[in-house]
Amino acid sequence: MEGAGFKDVQVTPxxxxxxxxDVDDLIEWSTSSSFGNxxxxxxxxxxxxxxxxxxxxxxxxxxxxGIKLERYLVFATARKA
Length: 81
Prior knowledge:
Blueprint (H helix, E strand, L loop, with lengths): L5 E15 L2 H11 L10 H16 L7 E14 L1
Antiparallel strand pairs: 1-2
C-alpha cells in the first residue's frame, strides 16, 4: 500500500468464530453473507451434492454446544499521502 502512495498503513488480522447448528444453518448464513451468491451458479443437483459433503464435514466437527467455525480475515487501512 505504501508503494501505491498511501501512508499510515495498518494491517490487522482478525479471527471470527461463528456457531452454526447444522449444514442448513451454514448455507443460510453463507447465502445471506454473500448477497445470495453462495452456490447460486450451481445446478440443484450440484447444490445437493455440496450440501451432503458439507454436512459430513460439519458433523465431524460437532461439539456439545454446536459447530464452531473460525474465519481469518485481514483488515488494511491507510490514508492518502
